[in-house]
Amino acid sequence: MMAGIEHDSADGVEIELISGQRMHDKTSMEKIRMILDDVRSGNIVILEEGLTPDEESKLIEVTMTEINPDDFSGIEIESFPQQTATGGGFLSRLIGSEPSNAKLTVIGPANQIHSLQKDDTLIRALISGK
């Protein structure tokens, strides 16, 4: 939260738009911890540049260890644009070509995101209040 800005969590859902520049110098675990801390607070996180496939896998792995039915129900995550077979599939990994992480990623609490849909040009989320 920025200094001087009052926020009342009863007002609704807070959305954090995080620039690639802010994430650039962070380690993978620092990124994951920052994202999970924000989502556990009930915020929706939108990453300008997304995470690498390994970071997304680790985020899901760490999330699974922190799920508690009374406290934290997990995350919903969707990235855009969708990785295609030619851009990020098995063959490109086999020959050493990593897909670009220049993608928008939306991450939020599973108990607040009722619907998270994606097609080739749009991510649509139905989000409830806290």
Model description:
This protein is of the alpha+beta class and 130 residues long. It has a single domain, classed as 2-Layer Sandwich (Translation Initiation Factor IF3). It has helices at 20-24, 28-40, 53-66, 85-88, 90-94, and strands at residues 15-18, 44-47, 75-80, 104-109, 113-118, 123-127. It has a four-stranded mixed beta sheet with strand order 1-2-4-3. The chain has a two-stranded antiparallel ribbon with strand order 5-6. A hairpin with a 4-residue loop joins strand 5 (113-118) and strand 6 (123-127). Helix 2 crosses helix 3. The two termini are 17 Å apart. Mean pLDDT is 78; it is low at 1-6.
Helix content: 25-40%
Which architecture name does CATH use?
A: 2-Layer Sandwich
Report Rg. Answer: 15 Å
Shape: globular
Tell me the strand order in the biggest sheet. 1-2-4-3
Total domains, how many?
A: 1
- Give the mean pLDDT: 78
Per CATH, the class reads Alpha Beta
Discrete helix count:
5
Beta strand %: 15-25%
| Biggest sheet overview | 4 strands, mixed
Please outline what is shown here.
By secondary structure, the protein is α+β, with helices and mostly antiparallel strands. Helices cover 32% and strands 24% of the residues. It has a single domain, classed as Translation Initiation Factor IF3 (2-Layer Sandwich), CATH 3.30.110.
Keywords:
32% helix, 6 strands, 130 residues, 4-stranded mixed beta sheet, single chain, alpha+beta, Translation Initiation Factor IF3, two-stranded antiparallel sheet
